[in-house]
Amino acid sequence: MFRCCAGPPLIGSRFSRYVLREVGPLYLGGVLLFFFLQMTDYLSGTVGAFLSYHTGVLKALTLLSYQLPNILNRCLVLAVPFSLLLAFGRLAKDSELKAAASGGLRPVTLLWPMLLPALLVGAAVYGNAGYLTPSGNAKYFRYFYTDIYNMAVPTPTTENYAHAENGNFFTAGRIENLGNGSRNVSGLTGVVVQTPDGTYSAGSGRWDTAAKTWTLAGGYKVAPDGTITLLKTQPTFPQHDVVSRPPPPADQSTTPQLRAQLAGQSAATETYRRTAYELARRSADPFTPLVFVLAAGALGLILTNRAWAVGAVILFLVAFYALWSTAPQLAAVGALSPLVAAWLPNGIFAAFGLLLAWRLR
Fold this sequence. Notes:
By secondary structure, the protein is of the alpha+beta class. It has helices at residues 8-52, 57-93, 96-102, 115-148, 255-263, 270-284, 288-302, 306-332, 338-360; strands at residues 158-165, 168-177, 185-195, 198-208, 213-216, 220-222, 228-230, 236-238. A hairpin with a 5-residue loop joins strand 6 (220-222) and strand 7.
């Protein structure tokens, strides 16, 4: 137990270092705990695919490595309230907070030494969320298709497609992934293929992106002399084009890519609001560790024993997650501006922390 035996300034300095030594191991333990929980969730969702496609250990570990930045980011943030609440709960249980207060130490001053570590965590979260996590998500998506499913990455849905190649001209009203388990095959609607020996048309067809062919589902052929023939077979044509992919999803786009996407979108669309929210969230989330120091730290200083601290950890994280997961939907439907929605969880918990800190003054 820490003993107070000097004046207030010395008590504050020594006790602050003592609290940091108490919080540090709990923070590392919290990172490991949340990492284990998220890994369990990740494996439960992917082990079925691994077994079905006979994925080797090396491929499974490669996939895991692409998800590590995303998993680690959440661990770094969630471990902050976990460590603070448990540390202050232990200090309250052993009456060390009361001993420090009796020596003239104001409880709220114990939070100031936590700000620098929180800033360092926030900086790591900013870089990770803006660059490493999107890159890892994109690699994860591609690797799942090419190395686990052994199929090409699905062709993006495209309207009014046209392409010329080796004297042939290909058009389709719509190209879309079939989504029915067919490997490397996209569906074609409203297909026309013009060749030197005639023009072929069909209501539908298939694009095999691995074999690089278009196959028409029957249809008609119009010869150069105007003769129309009903096709009783399914003609196949070599087609080597690759459809340009649309901008990657927000979770696969780095922060500079999101800014570029936002500049080309209409502000009245849901796509714009979702992109703007994701961009604003990447600026708000790095400040969450600071907010947690204030809110969870002040809450921990009010608690009277370790049992209350354990319960507070659960309630604290559940409440924050409820706000954090609801905010994107509020931004998407236009109920809140993307900027307000992104900062809403931090704002509410910062206000909660300031209220508790005022009580501790």
